[in-house]
Specification:
about 15% helix, two-stranded antiparallel ribbon, 1 helix, about 100 residues, 2 domains
Length: about 100
């Protein structure tokens, strides 16, 4: 198991009702966000701007691998254990290609 922590910065713009809306895409560098904030304040002085921070923690866990893959049985793909997880990608009619696939 591994854990990754990511910090993103983005600009926000205050709306007339007092709420804050996202005003830029995510940036990984705070100094870059600060520079963008300065530019935004110069080009749009009639609005209030600020920098917000989003922290994301992602945990990755290894899952066991099924050593024996399911085999195609033919007929309706919805009833086939090998096709069942991909049946949404199968064109209509959803026919399993059979044991030779």
């Amino acid at each position: 198991m591994s854990t990754t922590r990511t910090v993103d910065y983005f600009l926000q713009v205050q709306q007339p009702d007092g709420s804050w809306e996202t005003g830029s895409g995510p940036m990984h560098d705070y100094n870059h966000a600060l520079a963008r904030l300065g530019i935004r304040r110069q080009t749009m002085p009639e609005y209030e701007h600020r920098i917000a921070q989003r922290t994301t923690v992602q945990t990755v866990t290894m899952l066991p691998i099924d050593e024996e893959a399911p085999t195609h049985i033919g007929g309706n793909a919805e009833d086939c254990p090998a096709c069942a997880r991909y049946v949404h990608n199968v064109t209509y009619p959803s026919i399993c290609p059979g044991p030779s696939a």
